């Protein structure tokens, strides 16, 4: 069952923390890892992969997102098979503590999360209630509930101006377009079969989504809301992340245990990285005993990509100059979501 809400900080204290304007002193980043089977978030040093700390959260942490100012991280606690969760864990990185657990009430199975520009509100998809929520972290409450339709709404990205949200629907094979100012869904774009992963280019002109059953990426023009291109990948593409310079889209392919590297401008795959370790013993996953790479993130300097190997309880470290696996770092049980946060 989910853990009881934390009461370490009062609403007033958290609000003051969220609204403080002082910038953080940026040191070496840490890698946050959501461990689904461990109900925890680990922080690994990017110097050597050693665990700096591990924080208990709630059942089934599927996504982790960090505010642009590095002060807060939010964890979406999805639950386990047959047992839905409905809570967000809020981590204050200055104190390195979970300072609030937000009960979403009727809106269970939270998944995709993005911070709004003010760094104290987030948008969250909830699969069971088929909504996109706007949640105030300081107040610890849902401000808006926007109906976006069924078909398992899963991952979300925001436009560069944060006036629109784009949500993938796995079972429906579509993309929802949500006007956040009007608080309503304005379009549905058919994208493929089992649409899950999502990313947006730097200009905000293209939304890239991965279709698990089609083994491809579909590119949606945000002006016409039409699919303009399709790019083949490995098997079961499940996540997409853009490199900081916008040059590459990295696609984790869960079934073939690969990372597909796509040139964004040329719209073609240029490399394929094998993520499975020969002779490794993998845990049982939704795809059987397999490596099952899922979450991915790229360092701020673009020199390394990190991929959660869910079936191996590890993180693969990839050198983007050579597109080779450089190291494998131990993680907690069933790692999935990854995010970077300043160490200081």
TrEMBL record:
Record-linked InterPro entries: Host-pathogen_enzymatic-act, N2O_reductase_N, WD40/YVTN_repeat-like_dom_sf, YVTN_b-propeller_repeat
Superkingdom in the source lineage: Bacteria
Record's signal peptide: 1-27
Keywords from the named record: Signal
Pfam families from the UniProt entry: Cytochrom_D1
Protein name: Beta-propeller fold lactonase family protein
């Amino acid at each position: 069952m989910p853990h009881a809400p934390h009461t370490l900080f009062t609403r007033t204290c958290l609000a003051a923390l969220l609204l403080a304007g002082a910038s953080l002193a940026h040191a070496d980043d840490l890698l946050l890892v959501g461990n689904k089977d461990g109900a925890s978030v680990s922080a690994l040093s990017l110097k050597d992969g050693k665990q700096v700390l591990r924080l208990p959260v709630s059942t089934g942490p599927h996504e982790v997102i960090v505010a642009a100012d590095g002060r807060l991280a939010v964890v979406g606690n999805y639950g386990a098979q047959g047992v839905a969760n409905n809570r967000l864990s809020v981590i204050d990185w200055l104190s390195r503590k979970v300072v609030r657990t937000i009960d979403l009430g009727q809106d269970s199975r939270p998944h995709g999360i993005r911070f709004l520009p003010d760094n104290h509100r987030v948008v969250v998809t909830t699969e069971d209630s088929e909504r996109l929520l706007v949640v105030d972290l300081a107040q610890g409450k849902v401000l808006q509930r926007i109906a976006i339709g069924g078909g398992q709404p899963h991952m979300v990205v925001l436009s560069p101006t944060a006036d629109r949200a784009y949500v993938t629907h796995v079972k429906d094979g579509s993309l929802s377009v949500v006007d956040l100012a009007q608080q309503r869904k304005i379009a549905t774009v058919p994208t493929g079969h089992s649409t899950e992963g999502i990313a947006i280019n730097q200009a905000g002109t293209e939304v890239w989504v991965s279709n698990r059953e089609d083994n491809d990426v579909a590119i949606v023009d945000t002006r016409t809301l039409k699919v303009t291109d399709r790019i083949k990948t490995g098997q079961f593409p499940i996540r997409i992340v853009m490199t900081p310079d916008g040059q590459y889209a990295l696609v984790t392919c869960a079934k073939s245990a690969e990372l597909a590297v796509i040139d964004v401008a040329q719209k073609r795959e240029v490399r394929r990285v094998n993520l499975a370790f020969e002779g490794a013993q993998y845990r049982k996953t939704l795809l059987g005993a397999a490596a099952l790479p899922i979450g991915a993130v790229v360092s701020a300097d673009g020199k390394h990509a990190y991929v959660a190997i869910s079936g191996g309880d590890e993180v693969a470290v990839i050198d983007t100059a050579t597109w080779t696996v450089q190291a494998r770092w131990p993680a907690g049980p069933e790692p999935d979501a990854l995010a970077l946060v300043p160490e200081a």
